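Example: Elongation factor G2.
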Amino acid sequence: MSGRALQTFSRMIWGRYLLTAGLQGCRCRLSCHLKRHYSFLPDDVKSLRAVVNPDISKIRNIGIMAHIDAGKTTTTERMLYYSGYTRALGDVDDGDTVTDFMAQERERGITIQSAAVTFDWKSHRINLIDTPGHVDFTLEVERALRVLDGAVAVFDASAGVEAQTLTVWRQAEKHHIPCVCFLNKMDKPAANLSFSIESIKQKLKANPVLLQIPVGSGKNFTGVVDLLTNQKLIWKLKSMRDDGRVFEIKALDQSDDPELLQVVGEARTALIEQVADLDDEFAELLLTNFSDNFDAVPSIKLQEAIRRVTLARKGVPVLCGSSLRNKGVQPLLDAITAYLPAPNERHHDLVRWYKDDLCALAFKVLHDKQRGPLVFLRIYSGTLKPQTAIHNINRNSTERMSRLLVPFADQHVEIPSMTAGNIALTVGLKQTVTGDTIVSSKAAAAAAARRAQNDSGAEKKGGEHANIILSGVEVPDPVFFCTIEPPSMAKQADLENALNCLQREDPSLKVRVDPDSGQTILCGMGELHIEIIHDRIRREYGIETHLGPLQVAYRETILNEVSTTDTLDRTVGERRHVVTVELAVRPVDITSVGGSCEITFTEKLEGQLLPGVKEAVENGVHSSYLQGPLLGYPVQGISTLIQDVTIEPGTSAAMVSACVSRCMLKALRLAGGQVLEPVMSLEVTVGEEHLSSVLGDLAQRRGTVRDIQSRHDNKVLLATVPLAEMMVSQRLWVEEELEVCRLRPGVIPSVFNFPAHLGRTKELQTLHNLLKLLVQDLTTRVKKVSFSSFLL
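Written out as structure tokens, the predicted fold is:
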């Protein structure tokens, strides 16, 4: 290249650089009076390698949880865009969002797997997990909330608290997670702020702290008023393509709508009084310094008080917006950093015993064709580095981690280290599964165990490391099962490998072999869950399997309390085995024990039994729970008390288990049995003119109506219906997820047009045929159906 050409090229580069800088400066200067500009120019996309690595106090580990179609993924997409980590806004209907990267997710327009992304916002690092809203994938929500510090609950402002909202809220309550509420879809004609707030109070038994008032309603929704600062945030979108990066911030004055000023004034007064009732420090500040005029309290003091209320879980901040219309997401990001806790503000008793040593929890496993198993870890203490050995306390094994990655949906970036408080993705851990505790070495685990023992001042119980293992992920019992068969015996080994990999990824998937027929039984959380597993086996492992008829997982229980005794006397070779067992069984409330069975020993027997004998007795009891005396279904809701065990010398543990199992079977038969079936909590939204028809149909399905409520111009039926009556082959309802069919109430289409990106999957073709048969009944009656978790 000649000198002149080189000089010209250099000038072009510098010119472009200065022009870009000038544009940025110009744009910021123009925006400084009324507008606030978040993020960079659209062409400037941040790299994951440049994500901030701040002090632990500026890290936020949050999850997005909600009912189906409330806008979780759309909200996540806007967060990534406004923080500068994506170039364009993705859309769920177009199948191009960052967190919905599975083929099945993009075809169906729903979230199936939780996806983790990392980005920064105003010097804070946010590790976010987008969770599914469908009840079939409730385990994904459970294991995400297990490792998160805070959550954003997204609501459809026109529907308020819905069926699955109750389930995910209960999960967050169980893990004591502070939450922020986001009333999404404020641009819908039926959006109602007061209705949504009231539903949070009544259904969730929560204390909503309203921080924003919407400006306009329905299509005229243009922004919000911040009650802390009395400022109006307005998004003036000139077209549907406007991305909402820039919005006006203007202080309220007398020229604004008098009605809005009155509403804002009343709402701010109510906010100050509510926070004062919940926070003693703020109440003392008001009475001491602002007794003459509560409204004069500084916004920063009010914000600090709201943060204390949120962290103490005395109240939940409520914001509003419309993610799809690009309104209200930036204030939501500000609220996440302002009100949700940092990792060091969450107290984990076990972690303090590790001090500066590594302590992490594996909460999710994925399989990658090139990299092998990918394990997600939440780091509670210490530092994680690649090419180092780690110790798995649960497996009592040592593995070598080859690579360390920052998770960003399905695109990951390798990094040299990760500090406490973050979420990491590791490569090379082949034995680790969901719920395992990871430490730096066996010596570090032993040191932590000694510290724990010294702090408690008690004897060690249950082994050396039993009290330093982080609590794992609670896996629900499956409610559906069916047989699965390979196309030929030559594919049997491949199918077993695929099922093993899928079970490691998804602990809610259970696989067993029927002892009588030898068939492989697939057990899952629902019809969609099993269908997705079937589809993944075909796509990812190339096996065309055949599924048998779907069956509901029934259970058995007992009705009466019974005591019984049994003796086993066997001679095997020259060895005689004699054991006598006395026990009692009684029914217990299924809801109080979560559907499980209890085993207890008398105090006298507890001190006499050797560890090996006690384990044999427990194995015998557990084996009897697997098959009930009536129809052979698993038993639950039973408390077993082992009263006495007499063993002659030389009796093997296997004979003890056999005697206990035989005695249990005898007791279960004497106690009288009862079959339990899963029941689904159902919410149906229907026009009042068709209420009687829907009630009649529910009665035919053995449903019980709990309540009938009014919502706008419709009626909402709350009912419980046996799960067996709600299967696809028998269902007369259009589920909320099936809005892809674009059916409108009262309109009978002659042709069904599916969105092009969904393709012609087998499931949609079956739905297509079913709707042809039922459309005249469906479209004139039911508008929306929501399902919550299964009840046994």
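The first helix runs from residue 3 to 31.
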